[in-house]
């Protein structure tokens, strides 16, 4: 039986995690902006309240993460994968009071819907759009989150199972969580301290 989520205790040494944190702070801290919800250009704090910035997948931490993604995919998910979505990862910080409500990283409502049909009397443009989209569309299949620290209160990373049961990921620095992007999950409000993580999504061709 396959699992909808997996996590690895990478056992990253504390000194190594500090190197990551310092590098992200020095390189990307000034780029942190309020997080947005996909499809809306304005932050929706009812859904999400955190700060993010973007890290190129060519950053060395991307190679470290993708090694575990490939292992998890080989052993559990066995999906057809291409690359990290938008070729970037997200450095996310949650300060006191910040959170991310229940959501899924991918839903069928975002998929392309064929426009041309036998009932369509003028299918020229529609056929071109179908041709351009159907063979090139990629969707998020696996999501990942590398927990960088555990010196905060609250901020629990929680999932809903396919049966509707709630469970949560151990809050331990260095834990890397990999899960099906259709899985509903949330981050509970941080009570004190700052929660830091690197998250991203690995895409592949649409399921058929």
Low-confidence stretches: 38-44
CATH topology name, in short, is Jelly Rolls
H/E element sequence: EHEEEHEEEHEEEEEEEE
- Integer tally of domains: 1
The helix content, as a percent range, equals 10-25%
Taking the alpha carbons of the first and last residues, their distance comes to 21 Å
CATH class group: Mainly Beta
Mean pLDDT: 89
- Strand tally is 15
Largest sheet: 8 strands, antiparallel
Q: Label the structural class.
A: alpha+beta
Q: Count of helices?
A: 3
CATH architecture call? Sandwich
Provide the gyration radius in Å.
19 Å
Overall geometry? globular
CATH superfamily: q2cbj1_9rhob like domain
Strand content: 25-35%
What would you note in describing this structure?
The chain has 208 residues and is α+β, with helices and mostly antiparallel strands. It has one domain: q2cbj1_9rhob like domain (Jelly Rolls, Sandwich). It has helices spanning 14-28, 60-77, 124-134; strands at 5-9, 33-34, 48-49, 51-56, 83-84, 88-94, 99-103, 138-147, 153-154, 157-160, 166-168, 175-180, 185-187, 190-192, 195-205. Strands 1, 2, 4, 5, 6, 8, 12 and 15 form an eight-stranded antiparallel sheet that branches. Strands 3-7-13-10-11 form a five-stranded antiparallel sheet, with no helix packed on it. It has a two-stranded antiparallel ribbon with strand order 9-14. Strand 10 and strand 11 form a beta hairpin. The longest helix is centred in the N-terminal third of the chain and has 18 residues, at 60-77. The two termini are 21 Å apart.
């Amino acid at each position: 039986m396959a699992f909808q989520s997996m996590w690895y205790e990478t056992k990253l040494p504390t000194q190594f995690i500090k190197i990551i944190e310092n590098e992200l702070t020095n390189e990307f801290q000034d780029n942190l902006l309020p997080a947005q919800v996909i499809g809306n250009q304005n932050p929706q704090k009812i859904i999400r309240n955190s700060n993010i910035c973007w890290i190129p997948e060519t950053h060395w931490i991307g190679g470290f993460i993708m090694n575990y993604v490939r292992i998890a995919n080989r052993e559990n998910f066995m999906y057809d994968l291409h690359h990290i979505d938008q070729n970037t990862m997200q450095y996310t910080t949650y300060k006191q009071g910040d959170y991310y409500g229940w959501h899924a990283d991918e839903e069928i409502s975002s998929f392309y819907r064929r426009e041309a049909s036998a009932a369509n009397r003028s299918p020229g443009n529609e056929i071109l759009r179908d041709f351009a989209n159907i063979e090139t569309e990629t969707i998020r299949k696996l999501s990942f989150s590398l927990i960088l620290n555990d010196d905060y209160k609250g901020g629990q990373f929680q999932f809903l199972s396919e049966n509707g049961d709630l469970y949560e990921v151990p809050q331990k620095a260095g834990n890397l969580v990999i899960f099906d992007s259709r899985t509903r999950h949330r981050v509970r409000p941080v009570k004190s301290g700052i929660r830091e993580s690197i998250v991203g999504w690995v895409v592949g061709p649409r399921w058929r």
